[in-house]
Every structure is written in C-alpha cells, then in structure tokens.
Amino acid sequence: MKLRRYSEVDVFSTEAYRGNALAVVHDADDLSTEDMQRFANWTNLSETTFLLAPNYPRADYRVRIFSAKEELPFAGHPTLGSAKAWLDAGGSTGPDGMVIQECAAGLIPVRVADGHMAFEAPPLTRYGPVEESLVHRIALILGISRDQIIDASWLVNGPKWIGIRLSSAREVLGLQPDPGKLGDLEIGVVGPFELEGESQFEVRAFIGGDPVWEDAVTGSLNAGLARWMIDTGFADPQYTASQGTVLGRQGRVHISLHNGAIWVGGHVTSCIEGSVRL
C-alpha cells in the first residue's frame, strides 16, 4: 500500500452536496483490477474512478470506472468528475478548452468553460424498441399500468439503460418501484414538466442488482435519453433535465445538440481533497 492523492467531487449541481458524488483515486497505474473493485465496493458510492497514464497520444489521461459491483466502459458523472479532479491536480485544457479522456469506450472530449463542464456522448451501442413483454414487466416493476408508458427504447452506452417515457414529470416523481422485481435491469424514466421553468424534464434512474440503487444524477442515462427524445422530436435540441429530486438532490443536466453530437453538461464542485492509503 502507498499514499495516493484522493478526491471527492459533486457533479451536476450548482450547490455542493446536492448532485452526485464521485470518488477519484489518482496515480493508480500500479493498482490491480481487484484492488480497484475492492475499493470501489468499500466507498459505497455509485461510482469510483481511477486515473492512469493514457495509452493514446491524444488523450490527457486514462480512467477506469467502477460501480460497487463491476467495471463500466463509460459513465457520465464519472467522466465530468474525473476531468475536474485531473484539472485540480495540475492538468490543463488544450487551446480549444477541451480535455480528452481515455476510457474503455474510447476517447471522450470534455469541454470546460466558466465553471461548466460537458462531455460529448459516445454512440449508443444498442438503440431501438424494447420487446413488448419486457415493457409489461417494467410497468409492473414501476407500479404503473402498461398504458402509462408512452414509449420505450434501449439506450445502451456502457450501462444497459432502458428508457421509459411517461406523460408528465408528476408521474415520474410519484413512482414507487418494487426493488425486489428489478432483477438486473437498468431503467431510466423521463417525463415533461407541464409548466415552463428551469427544467423541461424530470428523470429518475433505477438500477437492479445487489444493491438495488436509485442513482442521484446520471450522465450516461441523460445522454441516451437526449439522443432518443431529440431524434423522435419529443425534445428540443437544447434543454435542461432535473434529477434526484425525490432523494433531496438538485441535479441539473444541460443537454445540447451540436453538429449531430449530444453534449451532456453541468457544474462540478470539488468537495474533498486528501490522500488514501491504497
């Protein structure tokens, strides 16, 4: 074991401790996969990341992303949080204001400007209709009727999200899913606000497995939802989504479409700086 720089950052909220927390271990090149997974399980956060030297000349750093139970090829709030931690540790953006992150999903550009950070979402690796039997199962899990589900789509971009669209944000906020029925599904639910305000949509993310989890604010899910809703004309090319409301958070995810690419952004705040013996 040795002493390594350690950070915890809050992602997707302008107010610290109201977004989604991320643990970041720096200088992790000599740690094994088993070391990383054990520590990620111990932090008990939705994700923990490990910063390493890049393999590709274009990349500024490489990151490995772990939930409490598995390694992920890509995840959204860990991408922004890792970039923030790397910058705080002495990294710098390129002349274009970009940081290039290397992860298992490839090279991910991260734009940094005026305290706001945004990543270019990687392509969806599975994108299309959900089989009707599974939609019925999801309705039972969510405790709603099948008729309340307006649309459903696979939105796989690392995590295996299934997007579910309801008719209103009020319905999304009122969901009381049965965690015992989730199995290993990863379900993201979205609905529009009826009145004009800061946010146009409310989002919730339910993740099955052990433990069952409602994620506070989810970049990968919002990236997939944005692709789907913009493609189908349900959302404008630029909008803001709220997430984490029922958990007492104030997550705000800013979506924009630029040259065909989805950009997912928000504020990132450094909360804890120190060291970890690992």
From TrEMBL:
Superkingdom of the source species: Bacteria
Upper taxonomic lineage: Bacteria, Bacillati, Actinomycetota, Actinomycetes, Micrococcales
InterPro entries recorded: Phenazine_PhzF-like
Protein name stated in the entry: PhzF family phenazine biosynthesis protein
